[in-house]
Design a protein that fits this description.
Layout lengths: L1 E7 L4 H29 L5 H26 L3 E8 L3 E6 L2 H17 L2 H12 L2 E5 L5 E5 L4 E6 L2 E7 L5 H11 L4
């Protein structure tokens, strides 16, 4: 069973939660590193102002990401899902997303900004994923949003964004493939 659906970037709790997680983890890692440097130097007074600056930078990054989601992607991204007896394959089908990641790689390498190039490469690698049924421990269904969450351990391994027309068929398939879930 294969389908394509436009996923709302700001209207999906899954997308918002994952985006917030990326920014929070990034802020935490950078803050811990900066605080560690100040602690090693014994400059305890510099920690609080540095955390304030880092927080402002991250707020700017979040606002920039929201602006890109709305202005460039129009709050939508096309995704394709394939569900079969092996598992779930998902991929981003939006041309704008592919162009943006390619542009980030090229511009990052051309300007020597390897973090930008790395972000583009990560976006390309995350553009498709496969989750085998044996990795799914729990199936959680959200009929209101036509979303099926395939959970494995402590995290959601995949979210199937369905259309109103195929939600029940996809849900039944997932529940049949994961009877212990």
């Amino acid at each position: 069973m294969t389908w394509t659906v436009d996923v709302s970037l700001l209207g999906s709790p899954v997308v918002l939660r994952q985006t917030a997680g990326v920014f929070l983890v990034t802020f935490a890692v950078v803050s811990l590193f900066a605080c560690g440097l100040f602690a090693v130097e014994g400059d305890w007074a510099g920690i609080l102002p540095t955390l304030g600056v880092l927080a402002l930078v991250h707020v700017g990054l979040v606002l920039g990401a929201l602006a890109v989601m709305v202005l460039y992607f129009g709050n939508r991204i096309a995704m394709e899902f394939t569900v079969d007896e092996r598992g779930v394959f998902s991929q981003v089908r939006d041309r704008k997303a592919h162009k943006a990641s390619q542009l980030a790689v090229v511009l990052g390498l051309a300007t020597g900004r390897f973090t930008v190039a790395g972000a583009g490469m990560l976006a390309r690698s995350g553009a498709s994923s496969f989750v085998p049924w044996k990795a799914v421990q729990r199936v959680r269904c959200d009929e209101t949003r036509h979303t099926i969450h395939l959970e494995g351990g402590w995290r959601t391994r995949a979210a199937l964004f369905c259309t109103p027309q195929n939600y029940h068929l996809a849900r039944n398939w997932a529940l049949r493939m994961c009877p212990s879930a």
